[in-house]
Every structure is written in structure tokens, then in C-alpha cells.
Amino acid sequence: MNENTEKPEGQQESTSSPDEGQGQQPEAQDSPDESGPSNSDDPEPREQEPAPPEPVAPTGPRYRVHLRYGEMRLYGDFLAETMSYKKRDTCVVTSERGVEIGEVLLPPVLEPKNSQTVFHGEILRHASQEDLARAKPFGKTNATDEYQYCKERIASHDLAMKLVGVEHLFGGGKVIFYFVSENRVDFRTLVRDLAKRYRTRIEMKQIGVRDEAKLLGCMNNCGQTLCCRSVLKSFAPVTMKMAKNQQLPLDPARISGRCGRLKCCLRYEDETYTKLRKQLPGKGTTVSSKDGSGRVVDRDILAQRVTLSLPNGKRVSIPCSSIRSTPAKKES
Asked: I need a labelling partner for 142 at 20 to 30 A (CA). Which of 82, 219, 256, 275 fits?
């Protein structure tokens, strides 16, 4: 069981243009604009949506809209020129990754003219039924032709990597392959194969085990969708101390999530437990109550009660408010 404080080592990210497969072998960070000679035996290029026009500085009011987009459930503020977008609306946006589908989480807010807000992109329009129909075939990352073909090529090249999912951007200009690997992987030959077959930009993105669980979006043992898939915007460190602070059983099967790391929800109540714990006398301290002086042998942090062991051997549970006096120095 690992604490959620580390990031995947040697993360790799590579983007390849459709024609790199016929030219020089691309490096991990090659420019996507490089191209080589064409090959008449290659498959016909996919029909792609025209690239969005260059953004023009708006002359009218600007609005900030908070969206969720992509298979990785990314969040960001997008620029809109109208207030017609409502919560839960689906729209077509252009982000730093390309054209994709986004969901409105917060209604538009008027942006001041002198605002320095850094937008993740711009909202192009409301998504039509035709737009949603085009995006639907790529909704499940493990059911596309790209996923199956990539798995075959990984096995063929004997690469030490596990393919997790595939994201096909709505505009058709890029296919992103997410994978998990303990070490760096030379996947240049794989990228050439994929670019040659699909005639579009290919991006290989290495992720960690927590992102893997987020991408797959399965249920946890609480019966709810994983927090990282449904509500969390980013990952924060989770430590074993948080589990101990909440008096949870230190059984890995009970405090670990689907990713094998400590559950993210251990953070939710840690601050409250820390505050309430400070209001109770520490174990082993002697306190006075209406039942007499006794030694604290147990504590119920949420109920704010302590169990005292009295000199006559009797044990009593009393609320913290009934303690008459405590030592000047408390043990934690």
C-alpha cells in the first residue's frame, strides 16, 4: 500500500503528425508539423473537421464559463461571448488540445475588461444533436478500433507498457493514447505505426495509477463512482497519518482505493478530526470528573467522549464537557 504523495516517474508524452511514419524516426518531443514523403499505399486520410479560425479579440462583453471536458475530466475556465450557456449544457469548445466537447459546470460570469484571467480555451457553440452523434462512438475508451490496434502493436513490438485508454478528440485532429509503465518506453516505432494507419496526429501520454483509475471511472467499495472521476479536480497528498488520526483500521483492503493507493476521501474529514482531537485529553492522562479522578484509556473523537479507568477498577464513559480539570500538559 503506497501513500498518495508520489508522481509517476519518467512521464513521457509524444505527439506525432500523420506523415512522420514515412520520414525520419521521430524523437519523443518532435514537432507535430514535421512531415515526410507520402506513400500511395497508405490508407485514405480520415475526414477531419476544419481547424477552428484564429481567435479574434472580442469587442463586446466577455464571459467566463467553467467547464469540464475530455476523458480525463479536465476542468478550466473558457471564454464565451454570450450568456446563453446554462449549467449542464453541452457545448463545442476549442482548448489547447484541439476541438472537443465540454460540459458547463457554472453559469457565465461577466469578465472585467482589465481582467488577467488565463482561459483554457473558447466556447464555439452549443453542441447540436449532430455534434453529439459524432462524439458518441468515442465515448468509451476501451471500445474503439484505435484501442484494439494499439494493443496489438504494443504486443508485436514487445513494449513494456500497459494501454489504459484512448481519447479521440471531437475535431478528429488528434488521438491520445494513455498508458502506464514503470520505466521510460521507446515507442517511436509504435507512433509511426499508428500515424500511418490513422492519418492523424498521435499523442502518447504516460499516466500514473491514480490517473488510470480516474480514466476508467469504476466504482469503489462504498458503492459510489470514484471521487477522482466524479468530484475531484486535482490529486492532493494522502498519508497514513490521516488514517490513524481518524482511528481507522490500518487494513490495506479497507483504506486503499481501486488504484492501490490510500483513498482520496481520507482527506475530507482529516481537518475536522484534528480539530476535535485537540479538544480531548490524551490517552494516559489523569482527569477529574463527577465520578472521581481517573486515567483516560480511550477516546471517541466524533462523540467527544472519553473512557476513564477509576482507581476501583471501574470504567466509565463521560462527555468531554463533564471533565472538571485536566493536567496542564496533555499527551497526544
From this structure: 256
201 touches 174 (CB < 8 A) = yes
Rounded Cα distance, 282 and 94, in Å = 56
- Grid cell 486535482 in the structure block, residue: 234
3-state secondary structure of 214: helix
> What's the Cα-to-Cα distance from 164 to each of 2, 75, 204, rounded to whole Å?
21, 21, 11
Considering the domain architecture, whether residues 200 and 327 belong to the same structural domain is answered as no
Strand order in the sheet with 13-16: 13-16, 201-206, 174-180, 162-168
- Same domain for 246 and 270, yes or no, is yes
| pTM of the entire predicted model | 0.70
SS3 state at 305: strand
Looking at residue 63, what DSSP letter applies?
Answer: E
The cell for 166 is 484512448
Overall domain count for the chain: 4
CA 322 from chain center: how many Å? Answer: 46
**How far apart, in whole angstroms, are the C-alpha atoms of residue 158 and residue 166?**
19
Least confident of 19-33, 60-74, 135-149, 301-315: 19-33
Cα distances (angstroms) measured from residue 299 to each of 90, 249, 290, 327: 50, 15, 18, 16
Kindly state whether residue 53 falls inside one of the protein's structural domains: no
* Secondary element (H or E) of residue 192: helix 188-198
Using one digit for the tens of pLDDT, what is the confidence trace for 102-159? 999 998 999 988 888 889 999 999 999 988 888 776 545 445 788 899 999 999 999 9
Segments forming the whole domain that contains residue 288: 279-332
